[in-house]
Amino acid sequence: MTLDGTNTWLLATGAGAVVVDPGPDLEPHLAAVAAAGPVALAVVTHHHADHCGGVERFRSLTGAPVLARDVSRSGGDGPLPAAGSTLDVQGLDITVLDTPGHTADSVSLVASDGHTTVLLTGDTVLGRGTTVVMHPDGNLGAYLESLEVLRRTAAERWRLLPGHGPVRPDARAVVTEYLAHRRARLDEVRAALDAGARTARDIVEIVYADVDRSLWPAAERTVEAALTYLSSTDR
Fold first, then answer.
1. N or C, which end of the chain has less CB nearby within 10 Å?
2. What pLDDT digit, counting tens, does each position of 188-199 carry?
């Protein structure tokens, strides 16, 4: 489920690095992040353990404060500021975007040093493949709105730094692809319902027939999110 693993991003500033998603509770990983240099601040994109399970140990290694949208679930020291607010860390501006959908507390970040701008998306947009909308914590309607926010925000030359997978050179293009994919999946779910499917599992067996069965439980949660969304929007 983590593709090549979970990405921890270090953004260099004059005051030390800003770390985005310290990562899981794995000592070699956390030690490597801490050894990269002084850490001024850490930000968690959402509460899943592969992104923030190591927060307590990370804090003891670096002494850096950790901010999150949901402090209680992420183990952070304090809440992120409201969406649209900017964290100014000596030479680096980081704008917070609320992008719920994968989880209720998911955020994305726009970071710029005045020359280069990157979009950090956590699990809202991945470097390859698509993400899971983790029903019931996740919400497909909110997720589609979040993708629209990212599409309007991103510029063509911004690099996309995802929570999993490789860097993508064109953030807007990737987000546009994600929107098209989600709409196509919704059409496939509608078609499966028209064909007689009645449960999320029925739909997974039709729509995700070509997907490795080990991924079907995650696909089923995404289909449950789709059914909840369709029940509130379709006649």
1. C
2. 999 999 999 999
